[in-house]
Each structure stands twice: as structure tokens, then as C-alpha cells.
Amino acid sequence: MSIGAVLFITFFAALAFNVPIAFSLFLSSIVAMFMTSTPFEMIATSLFAAVSKFTLLAVPFFILAGMVMEKAGVSKRLIHFANTCVGHIRGGLAIVMVITACFFAAISGSGPATVAALGVILIPAMVKSGYDKGMAAALMATCGGIGLIIPPSISYVLYGVVAEQSIGKLFMAGVIPGLVVGACLIVASSIVSHKHNYGLKTAKATGKERWEAFKDAFWGLLTPVIILGGIYGGVFTPTEAAAVAAFYGMFVGFFVYKELTIAKLKDLLIHTSLTTGMVLLIIGGATAFAWMVTTEGVALQFSEAMLQTSRNPIAVLAVINVIFLIAGCFLDGISITYIFVPLLVPVLQELNIDLVHFGIILTVNVAIGQITPPVGMNLFVACPIAGLSLMEISKSILPFLLASIVALLLITYIPGLSLWLPRLLGM
């Protein structure tokens, strides 16, 4: 049996026995090392090499920034502002959910964080306004994926590290694709709302009410401007931008909205540390796995086999999307990035497919993976908020899953959606 087969069979067998992903990655790497007489010291070496990169400092800071913004009261102000704009039309609250998710995505960089911050407010509000609970929860879980696509995003940081691409360029490339996903979800939610007559029409907000809501939400809306403007303006790097976002969130929480307290901050720091530790452990295991894939020639064999199947970029990207969509049902985005990117980069370079564009394709697939059972993280966050089982919420996810796949196809086969903005900005 080849080393590649040993790696993947051991990995998926461990997952089947509910071994955590990080330890499944380590276990499969150790088995492969034993069979090839590779020194086990490489585990420690790869773990240290994986987590000692300066760029990865962005991970804990972006996690902290998203959590701080949630507790600082930013989410409810963004929801109120969006509601004054479109809440009065049929299906308006569903549209508010999508629009607010796009705003909050530019703050949190995390799918589950977006679902948690907005879902506790919007899901009960939608149910109260006549929406089906399953539809509201499914839409919220899907909208959470926008948190990965619109920058700043932890997914872009990790992909940039693995594929050796500019994180700043990836951030810029993700803006329009994130809006495309949002637009497709607005269309889908509007169709579902009109078909089932969901949502109660409310009075249209006055210009004064909209202005007051805008002023109240201004400090939250300013966050992405500071982050992306600072990166493009050369004021700070993406890694430094993460720290700026975290401290800006604390400033807003303590001194502007005054909803953040020392006690809350202590809990946020503990939760950030635990989440970061989990992420870095997965990165360490995935790096050891990827090292074995590369050194044993598995990546080369994989690329040769794929190129023998087809050299048509359209067909190859279609196959890659199918692989990612299937992998998303079982793996988290970190594992997908570290396992598959080293395998696919040689193929992409051979076919002259832009690696920044591919990073956006990967991230959209990872976002879709967050709503596909059995490992759809956003579904697990939305279920307790709505009081639904995984089976109940999964029944309502189909129209939004289809809308996300339509967006994925548009982003995959229209590279300009990803690359136009970076080119416009001279990146």
C-alpha cells in the first residue's frame, strides 16, 4: 500500500471513530512516518514551524476582535440600521439578516461568531414576525459563511501562509465575491418569503430614523474602513491590522457604547485563548500531514493524475469544487486548506490559474462546508439559538445551499469578480 493511501485511510478511519481532527492528522502522520522510517522528531519540528509564523498572530487578534465587537453592542446597532433601510418590505427581515451579516463579516472574520452575534437577535425577531423558525435559522447559518468570505478573514490568513500569497491582496479579492454570495442569498430568501408569505410588513422608517440609526451604528461601520484602508494605505500589515481591530473594538466597547466591562473582557480573553489553541493544534497536525504528503511525492502523483484526466481549466475547477464540497461535509476549513492546497498548487500553476482567485474559491467552498451536515459548524451554533435539532434545520437549508452553490459557480468561472478590485488598486 502506498504512503498516500496509508495517510488518508488512517486519517478518515480515525475520524470515523470520533477522534478529534487535530489528533487524527497527527495519528495518520505518525503511522506514515513509522512505515517510512522517518524520525518522529519531525512531528515536533513541523509543529513548531507551523505555529511560529509571525503572520499567524492575526488569528488570535481577529478572533478577539470579533468577540469584542459582539459584546460591545455593535451587532444590534448594525441590525437596527439595516432594519430602518429595508425592514418594511415583504421578506425585509430576511434581507436585513443578509445585509447585517455582510457588515458584521467585515468585523468578525468568523462564520460561527457571525451566527452567534446576529442569530440571538434576528432569529427570534423573524419568528415573531411570522417567519418559519427553520427558515430563519437556516438562513442565519448560511449568512454566517459570509463572515469567512468578506475580509478580514482568518481563512485568507491561513491560505496566504500555505500558498505563499499576499494576504492583503486576498483581503481585497474577497470583497466582491462576499457581496455576490450576499446577493444570491437575498434573492433566495426573497423567493422563499414571497412563496410562503413570510414576514409582516412594518411601517417604513423616516429619513430621520435612518439617520439616527446610521449615527448609532457608525463606529461599527467604521471598522472595515480602518482595517482595509490601513492595509492598502500601507499604515500597517494584515497581521498588525488584526491587533488594531481588536484594540479598536475595545475602545468602542469601553468608551463609545460603554457595554464592554472588565469582567466581559476577561471571559473574552479566555475564550480567545481556548479557540486559538484549538486552531493552532489543528494547524500543527495538518502541517505534519502536508509535510508527509509533499516529501513522499503524494502531491506530485496527485497533480500528475489530475492533469492526465483533463487539462481543461473549466473541468479541473469543477472537479476541485466537487472535492471541496464533499470534504466540507467532514472537515473544517483549516484541515481542508492544509491538506488540499499543497496537493493542488502544482496543478493550478500548470494550468495558469491565479492562486489569489483560487484562494477565494477555496474560502467560498469552506463557507458552504459550514452548513453541510454532519460537520456544519454554523448549523451547530444556530440549532440551540432556534431550539431546533440538526435534522430540522437541515430540512430548511436547501434553497440557501443552492443559492450559495450558484454564487460559487459565478465566482469560480468569472475570475474578474475576485481579481478586479486588487488590479484596480494596483495590487
Instruction: Give start-end ranges of low-pLDDT stretches.
Output: none
Count the domains.
1
Output mean pLDDT: 82
Tally of DSSP helical segments:
23
Structural class by secondary-structure content: mainly alpha
Taking the sheet with the most strands, its summary is: none
Approximate strand percentage = under 5%
What topology does this entry show?
Layout: H1 3-16, H2 21-36, H3 41-51, H4 58-71, H5 74-86, H6 92-108, H7 111-128, H8 133-144, H9 146-149, H10 154-163, H11 167-173, H12 175-196, H13 207-232, H14 238-256, H15 262-295, H16 298-309, H17 313-327, H18 333-350, H19 355-369, H20 377-386, H21 390-395, H22 398-413, H23 416-424
Helix pairs in contact: 1-2, 2-15, 3-15, 4-7, 4-14, 4-15, 5-6, 5-13, 6-7, 6-8, 6-12, 6-13, 7-8, 7-20, 8-20, 10-18, 10-19, 11-23, 12-22, 13-14, 15-18, 16-18, 17-19, 18-19, 19-22
